[in-house]
Design a protein that fits this description.
With 166 residues, this protein is mostly helical. Strands 1-2 form a two-stranded antiparallel sheet. The chain is globular, with a radius of gyration of 15 Å. 28% of the residues are buried.
Length: 166
């Protein structure tokens, strides 16, 4: 396992706080938010999924499908508190995918809205919808919104692939 201090521009609730600012990279632990992006930011050797989006992005959409079913089960049983860590992980993965599809890593979380505004491939009102999610990460409404954002991002991904092949 590798422990890295999270750069200040990645310290943002609900992912990292000033008290919880160590990224522990472990292949078995899927709860290390923005691991590829942070490792790249601190110049460590890492996989860069944003450089080969045709090959490296699809498994993350498949992972979302599995997480979506788990979240649906938790929310249908009214276990929002238990769903919260999975929701944080799914939102972090969504943010990463949003940037990776645009051929870049997540550079910072402390100015996320501004950075999303500069992206080419993104759902309509993406930044505003993500801010809603981040404020209510464990709510059922956020789960529904995240599901819709993933569906729309998948369409943007296909659009990008078609444009990329031309």
């Amino acid at each position: 396992m590798l422990s890295i201090e999270v750069p200040s521009h990645f310290i943002c609730e609900p992912f990292y706080s000033k008290e919880d600012w160590i990224l522990e990279v472990d292949a078995k632990n899927g709860r290390s938010y923005f691991a590829y992006d942070i490792l790249y930011d601190v110049h460590k050797e890492t996989k860069t999924p944003w450089r080969d989006v045709q090959k490296d992005i699809r498994p993350f959409f498949e992972k979302w499908e599995t997480q979506k079913e788990e979240l649906h089960m938790l929310f249908s049983q009214r276990k929002a508190r238990e769903a919260a860590p999975y929701m944080k992980q799914a939102v972090a993965m969504y943010i990463s995918l949003l940037f990776w599809i645009n051929g870049q890593p997540v550079r910072r979380l402390n100015q996320l809205q501004e950075d999303i505004a500069d992206l080419t491939y993104k759902p309509i009102n993406c930044a505003e919808r993500l801010m809603f999610l981040l404020q209510r990460v464990s709510s059922y409404q956020s789960y529904i919104q995240l599901t819709e954002l993933f569906n729309e991002l998948r369409k943007q991904y296909v659009k990008m692939l078609i444009f990329y092949k031309k």
